[in-house]
């Protein structure tokens, strides 16, 4: 009985050994590795990939905004504005002065700013929220509005029957056009550069330029024969013959009158004598 149990145990051990020996020579199967993440053109996601507007393309194609765009690129604010528009729930509003508005500012005014001051000046031309044109009526009632540059850089917004002005300490800018109003990025065209008191303690020299929206004055009214003809001055009065300056209007003296009478009498007498001689 004990011998039978021993033989059974020995057979079991031998069969397990054979299985292990066969498994040792079996080739290993390589498990598939997880696909590696590859960097693509849209990773990490850019503002354009997330549905935001392309600020550079808009300012390049839609108007004379080359100067403002150049300052944004110089201060590395293009990406800041893009991210505010596309990666936040608030969006952004940008006030873009036209090129001739920058040309009106004396060059030394902006060239004298430090890089940080120039950056704050550009940020002062934006609000950290998307506003449509009709929203400015509500902004006009709440007093100074904080710009994207922070609490030290505020503007006052006025709204009058659709006309919007954005005022800083040294500039009264008017919104003269809507460049792009679709959320999340609103862009409005200004006719002046905003000049905040935080950067400029006194009025910077800014040249005046004509307002293209002001119509030319109408021509002066004329009569029926010459409508629109320029008005003419009256002809000068010709002086009387033999008159001289300072003498023509002088009163005639009594002596002068007597002399003329004597000459006339002598002339008449000579004429009578000539007739008698004949």
**In terms of structural class, how would the helical and strand content be classed?**
alpha+beta
| Share in β-strands | 15-25%
Number of helices: 9
Rg over alpha carbons: 48 Å
Present the secondary structure layout.
Blueprint: H1 2-24, H2 55-61, H3 66-74, H4 78-86, E1 92-97, H5 99-104, H6 107-111, H7 115-123, E2 126-127, H8 136-139, E3 145-147, E4 150-160, E5 163-168, E6 171-180, E7 185-190, H9 254-277
Describe the protein.
With 278 residues, the protein is α+β, with helices and mostly antiparallel strands. Helix content is 35%, strand content 16%. The chain contains 9 helices and 7 strands, in the order H-H-H-H-E-H-H-H-E-H-E-E-E-E-E-H. The protein has helices at residues 2-24, 55-61, 66-74, 78-86, 99-104, 107-111, 115-123, 136-139, 254-277, and strands at residues 92-97, 126-127, 145-147, 150-160, 163-168, 171-180, 185-190. Strand 3 (145-147) and strand 4 (150-160) form a beta hairpin. The protein is globular and about 35 Å long. The N and C termini lie far apart (210 Å).
List keywords for this structure.
alpha+beta
Briefly summarize what is shown:
The protein has 278 residues and is an alpha+beta fold. It is 35% helix and 16% strand.
């Amino acid at each position: 009985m004990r011998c039978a149990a021993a033989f059974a145990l020995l057979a079991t051990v031998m069969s397990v050994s054979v299985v292990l020996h066969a498994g040792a020579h079996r080739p290993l199967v390589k498990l598939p590795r997880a696909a590696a993440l590859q960097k693509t053109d849209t990773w990490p996601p850019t503002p354009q990939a997330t549905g935001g507007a392309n600020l550079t393309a808009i300012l390049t194609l839609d108007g004379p905004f080359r100067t403002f765009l150049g300052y944004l690129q110089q201060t590395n604010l293009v990406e800041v504005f893009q991210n505010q528009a596309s990666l936040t729930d608030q969006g952004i509003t940008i006030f873009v002065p036209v090129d001739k508005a920058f040309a009106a500012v004396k060059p030394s005014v902006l060239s004298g700013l430090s890089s940080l001051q120039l950056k704050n000046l550009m940020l002062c031309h934006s609000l950290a929220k998307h506003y449509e044109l009709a929203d400015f009526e509500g902004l006009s009632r709440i007093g100074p509005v904080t710009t994207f540059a922070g609490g030290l850089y505020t503007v006052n917004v006025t709204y009058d029957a659709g006309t919007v002005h954005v005022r800083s300490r040294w500039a009264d800018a008017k919104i003269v056009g809507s460049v792009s109003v679709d959320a999340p990025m609103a862009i409005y065209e200004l006719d002046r550069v905003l000049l905040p008191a935080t950067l400029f303690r006194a009025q910077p020299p800014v040249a005046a330029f004509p307002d293209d929206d002001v119509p030319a004055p109408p021509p002066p009214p004329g009569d029926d024969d010459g409508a629109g003809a320029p008005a003419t001055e009256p002809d000068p009065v010709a002086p009387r013959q033999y008159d001289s300056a300072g003498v023509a209007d002088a009163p005639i003296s009594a002596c002068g009158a007597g002399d003329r009478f004597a000459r006339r009498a002598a002339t008449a007498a000579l004429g009578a004598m000539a007739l008698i001689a004949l």
